[in-house]
Amino acid sequence: MLSDPHPLRDIVYRSFSRYLRVTPSGFQMPSGHILQSLPVQMLCFHHARTLYKDKNPSCRSLDGIQSLTEGRSCSSCLLRKNCTPQICLEFLHDHMPFKLILSYTSARNFLSFLSTLSKNRQPLENTPSVIFVRDRARWGEVCFSPSPNPPPTNP
Hints:
- The chain is about 15% helix and about 40% strand.
- It has a domain at about 5-45 and about 90-145.
- The strands form 2 sheets. Strands 1, 5, 6, 7, 8, 9 and 10 form a 7-stranded mixed sheet that branches.
- By secondary structure, it is α+β, with helices and mostly antiparallel strands.
- The chain is globular, with a radius of gyration of 16 Å.
- The protein is built from 2 helices and 10 strands, in the order H-E-E-E-E-E-E-E-E-H-E-E.
C-alpha cells in the first residue's frame, strides 16, 4: 500500500486517478491515444475482485472486501466463488495518477516483477518502471520492467 508520509497527496491521487484500458495494441489513454509502453512511477497495489456475466463486469470490488456496485460485503456474497481475483495497480505517468486492473496473466507478470524487486531489496513504491503490452491477438498482456529501459520488441 502507499507508504507516502503525505496523506493529502494520497487522497489527491486516489480522487483524480484514471483507469487505463488494455487493448492488444497497447494502453488506451483517456485522450483516446494508444501507447504500447508507459514510463511509470509505481505507487501501490491491492486486491480486487470482479464478477463477470456474459464477459461483462457486473460487480466489482477494488479491495476484495466491499462491492462497489452492490454495496455489500464480499465475504457474505453468495456469488463470491464466481468472482475473478485480480490486482489493482496504482501508478503515476507524466505526474498523473492512474489505476490498472490486471487480469490473470498480467497479474502473474506483476507478481514476478514484485519478486524481482524484492530480491534486489527495492521497494515497489516510487520505483521508476516501464509497463508495456504484448499483443496476444484478442487481448493484451501487461508486462513490467524494473528500469526505464525500452521494453523488448520481440515477445
